[in-house]
Design a protein that fits this description.
By secondary structure, the protein is an alpha/beta fold. It has one domain: Vaccinia Virus protein VP39 (Rossmann fold). It is built from six helices and ten strands, in the order H-H-E-H-E-H-E-E-H-E-E-E-E-H-E-E. Strands 1, 2, 3, 4, 5, 6, 7, 8, 9 and 10 form a ten-stranded mixed sheet that branches. Helix 3 links the parallel strand 1 and strand 2.
């Protein structure tokens, strides 16, 4: 199993910081969905700079911010202080979450748990199961094997589903785990799968267009 490695958030600033402080589109849907279900205990797993922690905190959820990066947690704390919001903060490894059994009733992890290998992914899913209350919903994004990154032969293959990203940037040398539909069904066979859909993002780079595919998955603990 590869060693967990977080983003280098120190190089994310200016325009890039503004992007990472803007909540994702689906977070507004989840906010309303979970508010209507009277969910309260929210885990922002891999909180980054806090864009979803702040969104849910402003809407009266009890927010726990978790990230492997102390830099990310410190910057989330600073932003939350400016917004007069109080959260629980923890720095740690998603392979062993520092939370009690059945602590949360909603969990959001966008572009986070893909940063491991196959063995690590199985451990993370077990940890998610452990900290989820019965009826808890968890929204997860995973990289698709259809995306350009999985086809980069110059990126070392760690196992049949995982490559080490060798592109310069905040994810340099961070492992990336890729899935297809059948693998998703196998990984989450012990949960109720509410929804699976795949999205394509078109990235323009050096007079070419890269297609980045992500699966968006909503699961519920029985």
């Amino acid at each position: 199993m590869v060693k967990s490695k977080g983003w280098n958030w120190k190089i994310v600033k200016d325009e890039k910081e503004e992007f990472w402080k803007t909540p994702s589109v689906e977070s507004y849907y989840l906010l309303n969905r979970w508010r209507e279900q009277n969910k309260k205990d929210f885990l922002d797993l891999g909180c980054g700079l806090g864009r979803h922690s702040i969104l849910f905190g402003k809407n009266k959820f009890d927010v726990c911010c978790f990230d492997i990066s102390k830099e990310a947690i410190d910057r989330t704390k600073e932003w939350a202080k400016e917004e007069n919001l109080e959260f629980d903060y923890k720095v740690g490894d998603m392979l062993k979450l520092p939370y009690n059994d059945e602590q949360f009733d909603c969990i959001y992890c966008k572009n986070v748990i893909s940063h491991t290998d196959t063995e690590g992914m199985k451990k993370i899913i077990k940890e998610l199961d452990r900290v989820m209350k019965h009826g808890c919903e968890c929204y997860i994004t995973l990289l698709s094997k259809d995306t350009w990154g999985f086809k980069q032969d110059s990126w070392p293959l760690i196992d049949e589903n995982t490559r080490l990203k060798m592109q310069e940037g905040p994810e340099y040398k961070v492992p990336h785990f890729y899935v297809d539909y059948n693998l998703i069904k196998e990984l989450f066979k012990d949960f109720k799968i509410i929804n699976i859909h795949q999205e394509i993002e078109y990235i323009e780079k050096q007079n070419s267009v890269l297609e980045s595919y992500h699966y968006h998955i909503l699961i519920q603990k029985y």
